[in-house]
């Protein structure tokens, strides 16, 4: 079985590395050729393509991990005519509606799965990410067997789109939670507490502590906003959540408010940095 990956961004590159280390990855493609060439230097047995459709023609299983709805649609649509008996696993976070529409076309010939990720780039390296899978159960075990090389927790959520629905539930929470952590941290500083005192409360002592606070509070303390999950991506996901909420008549006022806070953070120049940099928005806009 030949496996190819399309998309060598922060998450895609690390997932590709996990598969290549286990000798199950055959091909890669990225719209930035230098990334593909860099990967080829690291893993000589993996070939790279300059055309994603050509990669798909040579692959039995195609994994995509891309930035947004437009990127996924532009890659998947040309694959429809050649999708016969192929398994396509999209690990991007996009609208479940977009994904479902693509799935209807692919599933008439092959098998399409949404398989978004819960976890950071560090979790990918540790193979501790959670992958939520939506799609035909018929080939789920094959999908799971492949994804086991990059995750120890793969959950079947139901039909097409249900993996993404689960992911959006998670990202609504972490988007709001990160903003709340930053607001609480900023509030503590304004009250005269030290960074270390606030850090201990939020990441060690609080009843609301979590894996997210344990990872992100040290980044705030150290001013280290190297990207694990970017501001522009959480803002994009919150935008999807708000649009989907209208489709399902669901009330999401905190998501709407928090999306605007991330938009302000982007306007201050933090778009590509880790979403914990929303803390800097609070510091810059705090009235003194």
Describe the structure.
With 288 residues, the protein is of the alpha/beta class. The chain folds into 2 domains: 3-158, 3-Layer(aba) Sandwich (Rossmann fold), CATH 3.40.50.720; 166-285, Orthogonal Bundle (N-(1-d-carboxylethyl)-l-norvaline Dehydrogenase, domain 2). It contains 13 helices and 9 strands. It has helices at 10-21, 33-42, 52-58, 69-76, 96-106, 121-125, 140-147, 162-190, 195-205, 211-222, 231-247, 253-270, 278-285; strands at 3-6, 27-29, 47-48, 61-64, 87-90, 111-114, 117-118, 130-134, 153-158. The protein has a 6-stranded parallel beta sheet, sandwiched between helices. Strands 7-8-9 form a 3-stranded mixed beta sheet, sandwiched between helices. α7 links the parallel β8 (130-134) and β9. α8 packs across α10 (211-222), α9 (195-205) packs antiparallel against α10 and α11 (231-247) packs antiparallel against α12 (253-270). The protein is globular and about 65 Å long. The protein starts with a strand and ends with a helix.
Question: Secondary structure elements and their pairing?
Answer:
Elements: E1 3-6, H1 10-21, E2 27-29, H2 33-42, E3 47-48, H3 52-58, E4 61-64, H4 69-76, E5 87-90, H5 96-106, E6 111-114, E7 117-118, H6 121-125, E8 130-134, H7 140-147, E9 153-158, H8 162-190, H9 195-205, H10 211-222, H11 231-247, H12 253-270, H13 278-285
Parallel strand pairs: 1-2, 1-4, 2-3, 4-5, 5-6, 8-9
Antiparallel strand pairs: 7-8
């Amino acid at each position: 079985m030949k496996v190819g990956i399309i998309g060598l961004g922060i998450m895609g590159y690390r997932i590709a590395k996990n598969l290549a280390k286990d000798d199950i990855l055959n091909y890669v493609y990225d719209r930035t050729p230098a990334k593909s060439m860099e990967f080829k230097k690291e893993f000589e047995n993996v070939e790279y393509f300059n055309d994603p459709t050509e990669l798909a023609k040579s692959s039995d299983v195609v994994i995509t991990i891309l930035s947004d709805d437009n990127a996924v649609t532009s890659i998947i649509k040309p694959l429809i005519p050649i999708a016969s008996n192929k398994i396509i696993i999209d690990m991007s976070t996009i609208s479940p509606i977009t994904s479902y529409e693509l799935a209807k076309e692919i599933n008439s010939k092959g098998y399409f799965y949404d398989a978004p990720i819960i976890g950071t780039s560090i979790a990918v390296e540790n193979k501790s990410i959670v992958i939520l899978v939506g799609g035909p159960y018929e080939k789920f075990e094959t999908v799971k067997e492949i994804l086991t090389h990059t995750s120890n927790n793969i959950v079947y959520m139901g039909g097409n789109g249900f993996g993404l629905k689960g992911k959006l539930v998670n990202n609504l929470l972490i988007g709001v939670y990160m903003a709340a952590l930053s607001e609480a941290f900023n509030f503590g500083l304004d009250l005269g507490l030290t960074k270390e005192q606030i850090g201990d409360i939020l990441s060690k002592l609080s009843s609301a502590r979590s894996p997210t606070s344990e990872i992100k509070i040290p980044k705030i303390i150290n001013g280290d906003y190297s990207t694990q999950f970017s501001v522009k991506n959480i803002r994009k996901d919150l935008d999807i959540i708000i649009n989907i909420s209208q489709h399902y008549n669901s009330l999401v006022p905190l998501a709407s408010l928090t999306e605007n806070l991330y938009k302000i953070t982007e306007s201050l120049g933090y778009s590509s940095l880790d979403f914990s940099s929303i803390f800097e928005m609070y510091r810059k806009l705090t009235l003194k």
